[in-house]
Write a structure and sequence with these properties.
Distance between the termini: 34 Å
Shape: flat
Largest sheet: 2 strands, antiparallel
Radius of gyration: 21 Å
Order of helices and strands: EEHHHHEEH
Strand order of the largest sheet: 1-2
Number of helices: 5
Helix content: 40-55%
Strand content: 5-15%
Number of strands: 4
């Protein structure tokens, strides 16, 4: 990882790892065809259509706006540690956030509701 002008550049994104370049035959073919067991669930979440107010409100309340696990640890008013957000470790994080976004958009666009209470 390089840091230029306060921007991080991850080299593996630009350079193939050494092991991948040296693989031959079936090993290389196997590395290219990864099996994603969660793909059907991801597709189902993306296909959910928000059609009524009750479902939209339920989804907006169920999926939190921010990671509930991120915390600052303070002792006697001094910050001694920080627990980072772990939501991005969830393999369905992007799909759930997009589903919540669609529910909030439905509440605003179709129902004309104020969504500040969900943020």
């Amino acid at each position: 990882m390089l840091k230029i002008n306060n921007q991080r550049i991850f080299l593996p994104a630009f350079i193939k790892p050494f092991e991948e370049r040296n693989q031959t035959g079936s090993k290389k073919q196997f590395a290219q065809h990864k099996l994603d067991l969660l793909q059907p669930l991801r597709q189902r979440l993306d296909k959910i259509e928000i059609q009524n107010r009750k479902l939209a409100k339920f989804i907006a309340k169920l999926i939190p706006a921010q990671c509930p696990f991120e915390r600052d640890i303070t002792v006697f008013g001094r910050k001694i540690g920080h627990i980072p957000p772990m939501c991005k470790l969830n393999p369905l994080y992007n799909e759930l956030v997009y589903l919540r976004f669609r529910a909030l958009c439905y509440l605003v666009d179709q129902c004309g509701e104020d969504i500040q209470s969900y943020c």
